[in-house]
Amino acid sequence: MILTGNSLVNQRLNMTKYLSKTNGQPHPRSLGKRNANRPNARKRIFDAASELFYLKGIRAVGVETIAAEADTTKMSLYRNFPSKDELVAEWLREHDANFWQTWDAMSSRHPKDPRRQIKAAFALLAKHVADPKARGCPMANAAVELTEKHHPARKVIEAHKAKLRARLVQICTQMGAREPRLLADELFLLMEGAQVTTQTLGVRGPARNVARAAKMLIDAHLLL
Amino acid sequence: MILTGNSLVNQRLNMTKYLSKTNGQPHPRSLGKRNANRPNARKRIFDAASELFYLKGIRAVGVETIAAEADTTKMSLYRNFPSKDELVAEWLREHDANFWQTWDAMSSRHPKDPRRQIKAAFALLAKHVADPKARGCPMANAAVELTEKHHPARKVIEAHKAKLRARLVQICTQMGAREPRLLADELFLLMEGAQVTTQTLGVRGPARNVARAAKMLIDAHLLL
DNA sequence: CAAGAGAGTTACCGGTCAGTATCATACCAT
DNA sequence: ATGGTATGATACTGACCGGTAACTCTCTTG
């Protein structure tokens, strides 16, 4: 079956990332597994897992593959994370934190100008969906993959999306839209649609028009 | 791990579906595994696979689970389908056929009235995303799950979405939109967004406003 | 120098995965 | 009756799954 190709042999990508070996010969203080520049096992595992989960999918990636990509072993993974499920949840929690950090930084660049804030958000989204390596929204993808109702990641996902929706309502209200909740939901649908569409029709698909679509909807709502 | 819960014991849902046992006692020509009313193994397997793939996800469902749900064995599955991957592709091919059959039937009910055709399409979509058991679009979900570039299902998915996009352009052109391709893409984003959003924010999420969103965009484009 | 923490190594557990081989059983058309 | 066809039943393969045990090594801190 094509689906499961997790052999340790053919899935290692570029785990020499943290090894910094200087062309074969050992350089006193920079080569080997014990190296000051080298992040600890936990960080390497977390980084490897984040990349693999996003690019190949959660269920497609086994813990052994993650460990290999992080240039360590399964044991170190289980010394730092209670389970794969929790590692997944942790990954999404960090994504959530990064997302809001970026969002807030962006918003604070246009204080009291909700129109520009929304424009900036869609510009950022447009940039993301223009990246051919991107594979949509990690949260939404995880929701598709993890169908078990009580998976620890589901709480994270639902909270994240609910917060996003609320923020959009807030901004739409500040913009003075007559139906802020409606406009917010419409913008939400555009965002989600753009992310998921890159995975079927790619960067030349409808996703590239997401910013113009948002502008049309906002204008329509404000001129109402 | 929560992810893989495919034990034969706790995953069988309601495979008595085709058995039609009349309250315990055998009724001459309607009970047992050999029964005229009972579909053949291929159909049972295909139906079971369709339901399980959609509700639980493709990777979450093993062939043994499918066979059990169809009240047969793995051997019958492999006698009728070359592999699980091909079964998945076949499932999506049938979904594509059904989709366009519904679509065309709907369109032909409003000949030469593209506005009503689009309205009907979004009404149907709205109805679908209002079903709490629905789990978005099988095609888009499969695209999220199947990241391997050469999986046989990917061709089906991409063709399906490309055709949908083209149809939308066609209708938007007939509607007389000034920028039919742009409007089509915007409507496409709304459709995809609505489907995926049900999996994170449910039926009370932004998806329920998808029809109104479409109307706003269309109006905005026509009054341009 | 000693102690302890962090990490690497190897082997293993029970279970599930997709896919196959083999034999038996029931039906239908001739 | 007979032979073909579809199906059922069971056992199996080799690989991978998530997760654990036990031991060693090395570096850092006191």
Structure description:
Two copies of one chain form a homodimer. With 224 residues, the first copy, chain A, is mainly α. Chain A has two domains: 14-80, Orthogonal Bundle (Arc Repressor Mutant, subunit A); 84-222, Tetracycline Repressor, domain 2 (Orthogonal Bundle), CATH 1.10.357. Helices cover 63% and strands 0% of the residues of chain A. Chain A has ten helices and no strands. Chain A has helices at 8-11, 41-56, 63-69, 74-80, 84-108, 114-129, 138-145, 152-175, 180-201, 210-222. In chain A, helix 3 crosses helix 4, helix 5 runs parallel beside helix 8 (152-175) and helix 6 (114-129) packs antiparallel against helix 10. Chain A is elongated, with a radius of gyration of 21 Å. Chain A starts with 7 loop residues before the first helix and ends with a helix. Residues 3-31 of chain A have low confidence and may be disordered. The structure holds a DNA duplex (30 and 30 nucleotides).
Order of helices and strands of chain A: HHHHHHHHHH
Q: What is the number of beta strands of chain A?
A: 0
Radius of gyration of chain A: 21 Å
- CATH topology of the largest domain in chain A, what is it called? Tetracycline Repressor, domain 2
Main pleated sheet of chain A: none
The CATH superfamily of the largest domain in chain A is Tetracycline Repressor, domain 2
List the chains of the largest interface with their residue counts: A-B, 60 and 61 residues
Quaternary structure: homodimer
Averaged pLDDT of chain A: 88
- Low-confidence parts of chain A, pLDDT < 50 over ≥5 residues? 3-31
Overall body shape of chain A: elongated
Question: N- to C-terminal separation of chain A?
Answer: 55 Å
